[in-house]
């Protein structure tokens, strides 16, 4: 896809999959959304937004470099690895994902990238990071040699983030979406010329914004309303999850991400997904699917961690231990599937 994308950015045939009308004609790329919060849409991006994002990323990371593509290119995170390579004038390495993500495969794909002069980067989702960190083998050793490892696509469990950094991985957490040309907030701080505001729901403005959704009459305005909850503290953004995911139990509003963070602090918890399950008495009850490694914590330990950190209303009434969480898209947990497992 690299050559086709390079041509599209240079004014060649756009990668949009069909004719464009009106304001859509400025688009060079169409990216489908994951559909995790409703019907999938096609996000239309122009060359200016894509290259602005790539240039601002390199500026934040310390300069252009050689990238390892470890994500599929039908999602914006994978596409942006290619755009950044085009902007940097470098050729990216590519990890073969046809057989799934494997630590040894990552190490082998990283070798020629790391042999190139200059700086070296890659982008992963939290599930990939977890497999490399837990393995503590050649995959982790290769990962430690990158100058920056962008992590996005889903919230990174705090314990995983802490462990990766303690092991010498230069992790940079990212927040963004197809509508913002990928990650536009790094470690809580917006990229150059990106502006943030929130009235509980996060809104984003700046040169990285997409044109709009294909088939809609009007393009995006100056500000894009994300549908994600968040708050700004001293200029840094804290993302609290999707507004649609908030659990209302007994009249109390519970953001699942806060419960997930509390659960992840318990020894033995690798990751967790928290959802609301319909209940005749409470309206919804808090339910948690928990992935463990090593000794399995007790239910009392899990509930105490949540009660102490988030409050009694957020304490899970239902807990299920699972071997892994179902995924939808590049590293996104399928919350609908998790909720269905409790019914």
From TrEMBL:
Molecular-function GO terms, alphabetical: medium-chain fatty acid-CoA ligase activity
AMP-binding enzyme C-terminal domain segment(s): 259-332
Keyword Ligase among UniProt keywords: yes
GO BP term (any one): fatty acid metabolic process
Gene3D superfamilies: 3.30.300.30, N-terminal domain of ligase-like (3.40.50.12780)
UniProt xrefs under SUPFAM superfamilies: Acetyl-CoA synthetase-like
Keyword hit for Ribonucleoprotein: no
AMP-dependent synthetase/ligase domain mapped to chain residues: 31-190
UniProt entry keywords in alphabetical sequence: Ligase
Record-linked InterPro entries: AMP-bd_C (IPR025110), AMP-bd_C_sf (IPR045851), AMP-dep_synth/lig_dom (IPR000873), ANL_N_sf (IPR042099)
Family per record: Belongs to the ATP-dependent AMP-binding enzyme family.
Identification of the protein by name: O-succinylbenzoic acid--CoA ligase
